[in-house]
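Honest question from a wet-lab person: if I give you the sequences of every part of a complex, can you actually get the arrangement of the whole thing, not just the pieces? Trying it with mine:
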Amino acid sequence: MLKNPNWKSIGTVLGETFIDCFYFSLKNYKAKKGDIVTTDSKVPSSEGKIIPVTVWGKISTIESSNAFFPTEAAQELTNEDIDIRDTILPTTRDELICKVVILGYTKDEDKSSKLLPLIYPVRPAATVKYPSSEDVEALLISDLNSSHPIYIGSLLAREAVKIRIDADNLVSRHVSIFGMSGSGKTVMVRRIMHEMLCKNYPMLVLDIHGDYLGFIQKQQELYPDNKIKLFYPNLSVSSEDKEIIYTLIDKLGKPLTDPQKDFLNSLLEKVKYESGSLLKYVKLLNQRSREYASEGSTSFKNIRPASMYVVARSLGQVAKKLENMEQTNFRHRKKMSKLKFVELADPATEPEKIISKGQLSILYLKGYETLPASAIVSILLENLFKHRQEVNEEIPPFLTIIEEAHNFIPSRSENKDDLPSVETIRKVITEGRKFGTGIMIISQRPSRLDETIASQCNSQIIFRMVNQRDQKATRDRSETLDVDDSKQLPNLANGQGIISGQVVNFSLPVQIKFDEKLINEDIGNENFIDTVENWDDSEAVKERQKFAQDFSDISDIDNRSAN
Amino acid sequence: MSLEISIKDKIKRNSSMFVNFVKSAVTASPKVQNNFLDVSAKVAETVLKIVKDADLIVDLNYKGKEFWSQNRCKTACFVDGGVDKTSIISSAPLSIRAGSYVVKPDAISKREYFEESMVFLGDLYDPKNELYDFIDDDFEEDQMLNKKKDGARIIFEAATIVKHILLNKKFDYCFLHGPIEGTVMPFSVPGFPTFTKFAVENMFPFAVNKKTDIAARHFINVYLEALNYIKKGKFPIYGIVETSNSAPYVKNLLYNYKSQGKISDKDYNNFIKIIKKYKITDSHLLEIILSSGQALKPIEIKKQIQGFTVTTGSSWEDKMESFPKVFIGYIKTTDNNSPIRIESLNNSKNLIKDYEYILGTSRLLPNYGFPVGLNVVDKFAKIPNWMSKASRKYYATHLLRQAVKNKDQNTISLAVKILSKKARSWRNRPIGGITK
Ligand SMILES: Nc1ncnc2c1ncn2[C@@H]1O[C@H](COP(=O)(O)OP(=O)(O)O)[C@@H](O)[C@H]1O
Ligand SMILES: [Mg+2]
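Yes, you can. This is the full assembly:
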């Protein structure tokens, strides 16, 4: 059905053909890399008939050889200032050879246009055609066969061809979004989030930079019917899970000796705390240990007060750091006084406050160091996942979006694998399909991500990537990324990505639609020049400047030589 | 500084004569080695003296930008032919190709185009004499095959030029890569196959009506007819040769001087002996004598030389006498290369302009110093990689069709194997796997 006599012919199939690819010579400027092309062919049907079909393919490379132009000639042209068009040198003989990766074929007499795998090579010397944008789009959509397609942008080679991806696979089969900083990952995520919000699908986004605050700012205007909540973290601890304390001391405090650990153990036994704020608990522990030490308590066998002091000091350090992080986060929040931040609800007891139909929850993690952030995320996801596992589900399926994922799921080789979030996310992602806990991983350093988790993502969206190791990691973990497409990675512009995997059926270079409205207005772009232009020194600085000259004079006089 | 010293210096400064001499010095006698520099310097000096006496040197004018803005309106055609070297095995049908690159820089549309023709060696020569030679170590058959290839290329190039004339193309220039008139002696060997009637009729339609006998389809006869036709062409046609392996210009020049009585017979004969002994060619000498941008005016030369054993007494002797004489000149296009040889069947009225055009097109290939259009068409005539795969199949299919027609079982199985196997496996095929 998808056959149109008006499709322009743009070239001729060359040489040997295969069932997965063919080469053709392209007429000048008639198609680009990434373009979808067709050629008429015939295949044997299962009934032994020969049926006419349209073979669809994607141009994966174009090589232009100007074999007829001798390089030596350039020398003379330059030296003598000769215009090449005045000479007998060939100017129009660029031979363009395209490699086409075959996507499949459609039967000409068929109504449906699902792409079928090609079982017979295309005919050498056949004409290659350029299908109309509408027809390409129609093919892609009907081939995607999605009950919930979402629009993300257009085919890189052809703006008129809209690209949609399958939302069902997106939320259940996990997606990774990789690319160097500034390549367009966040813009892509916001695009997906926008579409999913319109479908009322619950989402939780871990926002480190405040990239997603635009959703709150535009809530009235764009999402009047959705709930969008902005949380700041509350490091909570449950009575049965005190493991986190050890980890915190290990990472934020001083490492403990065995007797000191024994003391901490007993301390945790003694000092009961009914789940709640971690900071408060650490402070409590610090206070108690100090007391025991000064009392010279004997209730701890074989432990000297000196050891108790060490533990107390270590706990004090942890408390101080946690407090600092909380305050940093608080200061950042205060800058955005227009936005309403609420403390993160307890995911164990009130998960519905975080995940509910039509709601987007943004967890604003700015200011937190890796370990506490990891702990926060681990506890949060652990609990939410539990609620999905239970028979009487308390929360609907949801999508978790993890920005700067290398902070939460570092690769083993990074020696950070004791981060609590690694284990949690590994569990959530492997069982996500069963329980509807899809995960989207965003990172600029794919080579530094936990291999198991990264390879669980069945779809990839890859943006510009220059680092070789990251490119390799990306290729290694994707079964679907087209090799020739991946060569393009270093040259992609902002917002140009290669999308592959189950959300699309085949690898496609896409120009992502940019939703300017969703940018966080308070952050905006990194426009330091404007900032400096509007800069006014703070009061303290002004005061200091007032007296600076006087002090400087004093020391000058002081330094004068004796005579 | 005496002339002799400067010439010696020139020779030593890596001229092709010196390079060539150093290469062959191992085999040369000690005396020859010893005297090489002195002898060749004296030879060059003498030739230069005669060339000057005959007023043969011209200074050509070339100023890049100006030249091309004046010549952008000219239509030039470049012709080159070649044997398809991509064939799988020696016994597979070879194809002969000839391409033309036609360009008119200032044309509004169709500024440049390529034309190409291809023919199978097997379709060109009469099948009675055709051999799918399965034995490839038979020296004589190899020789014959090589001759057939050469003959085919020469005739096909000539046919291409003839076609342009027949179609009344409005060229300002036509250039052929290679001699405008090849030596026909090698094709006078007994048993050299004739062309098919079909081939002759198609290549040289004007030749058909007059003669239908088999001898008329022999290379030498067909070629002569083609050359006579080319000689009548309305546009200047030049054959351009990179290097000369002999000394036709110098020999003929001295011969003329001898005929005029300006040189004694003895001196002439000695001179000929010397240049033979020291392997001195036109290229060697003229490289030293001419400076970049200089040309030697053409002299008329007989290309077909009698007196070889193969031709003596044969009917070809007379025939060879009737071949047109060729005008041969030289242009030194760059400092670092030996001069290129310019051949034509006519003495041009605008010789200087023509030579300047050749110089201009050669300057676009500054290191190689050869008309760039011929380089372009040469590349075109070579089969690109993707094509060679395709052409391999094409050959095999062709072979199969022929074989089925002739019901030749060996050839059929050969073709089937070519079709079903990759080229490389044919190189490694077991010896004796296929017999005649
Ligand atoms: N699809 C797009 N179209 C146009 N510009 C884009 C697009 N994606 C990104 N950009 C530009 O690049 C900038 C950085 O994009 P962003 O998504 O924040 O990068 P990343 O998250 O990969 O670091 C954006 O602010 C925007 O100016
Ligand atoms: Mg980002």
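Two things worth pointing out. Chain B has three domains: 1-53+261-280, 56-246+288-383, 388-423. Residues 139-166 of chain B form the longest helix (28 residues).
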